[in-house]
Each structure stands twice: as structure tokens, then as C-alpha cells.
Amino acid sequence: MLVAVVGAGIMGASLALHFAGNEMTVLLFDGAAAGSGATGSSFACLNFFAGATSGYMQFSSEALDYHVELARQIGLVDTIRATGTLRWSTDSIQNKKLLQAGSMAEGLGRTVEYLSRNDALNLEPNLSIVGCPEVILRAPQEGWLDSVHFTKRTIDAAVATGLAHRVREKCTRIEPLKQGVVVWTNRTCYLVDAVVLASGVGINSLLDDLACEPLVDELRDVLTLIQYFGPPIEHVVFANHIHFRANGPSSLIVGNAYDPVGLRDSDVAVKAVRENVSLVRGELKDPSVGESITAQKGTRPVPKDGYPIVGRLPGQERIFIAVTPSGVTLAPYIPLLLTTEIANETSCEALGAFRPERFNPPIGNSPPRLQ
Ligand SMILES: Cc1cc2nc3c(=O)[nH]c(=O)nc-3n(C[C@H](O)[C@H](O)[C@H](O)COP(=O)(O)OP(=O)(O)OC[C@H]3O[C@@H](n4cnc5c(N)ncnc54)[C@H](O)[C@@H]3O)c2cc1C
Predict the structure, then answer these.
(1) What's the CA gap between 276 and 273, in Å, rounded?
(2) Is 356 in the pocket of ligand 1 (CB under 6 A)?
(3) Which residue, among 145, 113, 120, 134, has the nearest Cα to 42 in the 3D structure?
(4) Residue whose CA is closest, atom 19 of ligand 1?
(5) Which H, E and C letters describe 32-90, residue by residue?
């Protein structure tokens, strides 16, 4: 079976590796550099705390375990920084939500430590932890990923099997036939048995030609990169509205404290960067921050309900979708499950909540467009 994967971000790279692991030949298309989409502009926290429901937290938790297992199998352990996370909020409602999430995580068998401010300061002496939060949650199994490195080396591992091939072409159209699918690119076309669209925010334009409504919203966000010369920060820190972590030996990467939707406006983005720097300085005892500040803009694909979309495109026998807003954490696990489904023609229960059919009106059912 010959499969095309469109998009060489972390999702497409992981799909290529897992198709090859199922003895299937795979063409991995991307006209841009591997990992240059959302994967390259991500905060890249590996976490299971993000989910609002127990089911989603469980899925994320399984995904995190699989990440570690896969990294061991293919020699990428150095890309996973299992530093742990620290979270707190001085807002009573947010604090309550955090504690609920903590007990949900414990119910799923994860380790959650409840620290006093002093305990946390012993672990991270250069934090100041302003506002005396009631409790600080530490999740030692969470951390962050060197996502671009992981993506590139996953592609190398896939190509090394001899079954995966990188095609440096942009896919312009997907044409379903009775016996296969034609992948049109900016150079030529390829007849394959099946296609998986892992093109992040680029998925909408490919679906448009298949007469599908847009599947994902493009959520713009900005990260701030700051030169930092103070004592090392080991954990990924979620302090009230700001989150930050080390990004190499002499820089910090800071997640936006603003509502990302407002960032379409460049004045708001500049203000957000300034605010981020000031908030992080406030959270550090020794705020030895350099002059160089860089805003790194990124766009992540967010399905209408905020959850991943994985599986066969309704009405299309041979076209599949794999798109998620938290792909750094979930990407390797989703491809493990999806490629197993496609290779064995089975249905995986763990993906049940993420099927494209859950939308109303269902996607893939818009009236055919006149050519
Ligand atoms: C600011 C920010 C912070 C984030 N923080 C986190 C976090 O802390 N934790 C977490 O888990 N996730 C986080 N995410 C989300 C995560 O980064 C993304 O979900 C993930 O990287 C998506 O990977 P992907 O491979 O699906 O998409 P992408 O990395 O966007 O890759 C898609 C690829 O498809 C290619 N492509 C598009 N159209 C075509 C076409 N027509 N033909 C060929 N190729 C095409 C693109 O060139 C691109 O390389 C964050 C994202 C952002 C932007």
C-alpha cells in the first residue's frame, strides 16, 4: 500500500514513521522545511493538564507516556526535557480549577505534588512567586520537547527504514478516484492508495477543493524570547497568566499572557511582548535579562470545539485527517493509533471522541462546488 502524508510537521513526521513501521510505503509531502509550521513556533510543553475533561486528560496522559517510549525506541531521548511543571494561581476561581485538574490527574494515576511556596522556592531558588499562592502544583512527569529537532530526526528515522520518502513539493489539490487518490503538487502528480492530511492550518485549503467547509480556525499567538543570564530555571512555570521555561542555557521562552485572538493587531502583539517581559521579570528574584527580545509569531490549527480531529473524512474512503491544537504532546500517539487503524482496517476506541463526524452540520457534506 502506498500512502501520502501531506505536511512534515510533528504530526506528519510521526505518521511517516508509523506507516513505515506498519510496512507501508509512504510519501511525505511538504514544500517548506520540516517543522517550520506550528511545530517550529510552539511553546512545546509536554503536558496532560491542558484538558478540561477527564477523557481528554487521560488521552493526553497516554500520549505523554507514548512520547517517552517512542523517543527511547528511536534514540531521541535527548529531545524530551522531563523537567516537571510548576503551576499556581492567586485567583481563587483559577486556583480551584487547578486543584480539580490536580485531583483528576491523580485519579488517572499521575503524580501530582502539592507544594508550599517555600517547597517550590527550594526547587527553583530564582523564582520570586509573587502574590503568595495558596498552593503550587508540581507535575514531575511533564516538561517540554525540542520539537523541531524531534520532527527532523523522526523523519530521518522514517526514511532510514527505506519505506518513507520525503517529497519536497507543496500539495495543491487532492483528487479522489475510485481506485486511489491523486495528489497534485506544484511540480507533478502522484497516484496513491490513501492520503492523510497532516497539514496543520494548511488543511482548510485542501479541503476546500473537496467541497468541505473549513475544519480549523487559525489561532495566532506570540511567544517572547528573552536573553537570560540568571540562575537556571529547571521547570516549565505556569504562574497566573504567564508561562515560561528555559530555552537553552541563556534564554527564556515566554507564553503570552494576553487573549491570543487580539494578536491579529500588531500593536496588541507589541504590547503583549512588553507585558510578557515585565511579568517574567516580576516572577524572577534575579531578573538578569538581556537587551535582546524577540517576538516569535505562530499560528496553530484549532478545530471548532478545541479537540483533535482524527480519522477518515466523511464521504471519502481513502482520505484521512490528523489535526490537533496540542500536537507537540499528542502527535506521536495519534499517528500510532491512526496508522494501526488504516493498516489493519480496524477502529480504535481511544480515537472515538475525535472523529470528524462529531460536527453538526457534519463536515464533508457541503454541497458540491461548481467547477
Ligand atoms: C504559540 C504556540 C504555542 C503552542 N504551545 C503548545 C504546547 O505548549 N504544547 C503542545 O502540545 N502544543 C502546543 N502548540 C500546538 C502545537 O505546536 C501544534 O499543534 C503542532 O505543532 C501541530 O503540528 P502539525 O504537524 O499538525 O502542524 P504544523 O507543524 O503546522 O505542520 C504542518 C505542515 O504542513 C505543511 N503544509 C501545509 N499545507 C501544505 C500543503 N498544501 N502541501 C504540503 N505541505 C503543507 C506546512 O508547511 C507545515 O510544515 C502551540 C502552538 C503555538 C503556535
Answers:
(1) 5
(2) no
(3) 145
(4) 327
(5) CCCCCCHHHHCCCEECCCCCCCHHHHHHHHHHHHHHHHHHHHCCCHHHEECCCEEEECC
**For residue 281, what pLDDT is reported?**
92
CA atoms within 13 A on the CB side of 72: 5
Can you give the pLDDT at residue 225? 94
Question: Over the chain (371 residues), what is each successive 10-residue block's mean pLDDT?
Answer: 98 98 98 98 94 91 97 96 96 94 95 97 96 95 97 98 98 96 98 98 93 89 92 95 92 81 68 87 90 90 94 95 96 98 96 91 51 34
CA 12 to chain centre: 12
For residue 102 and ligand 1, the question of a CB distance below 6 A is answered with no
pLDDT at 268: 72
pLDDT of residue 371: 34
Residue nearest atom 38 of ligand 1, based on CA coordinates: 202
- Give domain 83-141+218-301's CATH architecture: 2-Layer Sandwich (3.30)
The topology (CATH level 3) of 2-42+147-217+304-358 is: FAD/NAD(P)-binding domain (3.50.50)
DSSP 271: H
Gap from CA of 307 to ligand 1 centroid (Å): 14
Long-range contacts of 162-166 (CB under 8 A, 24+ apart): 163/19, 163/20, 163/23, 163/24, 163/25, 163/26, 164/16, 164/17, 164/19, 164/20, 164/25, 164/26, 164/27, 164/28, 165/25, 165/26, 165/27, 165/28, 166/8, 166/28, 166/30, 166/34
* Ligand 1 near 220 CB (within 6 A): no
For ligand 1, atom 27, name the residue with the nearest CA: 200
Q: What does the domain layout of the chain look like in residue ranges?
A: 2-42+147-217+304-358, 83-141+218-301
Residue 368, pLDDT score: 40
Q: How far apart are the CA of 143 and the centre of ligand 1, in A?
A: 19
Ligand 1 centroid–CA 343 distance in Å is: 25
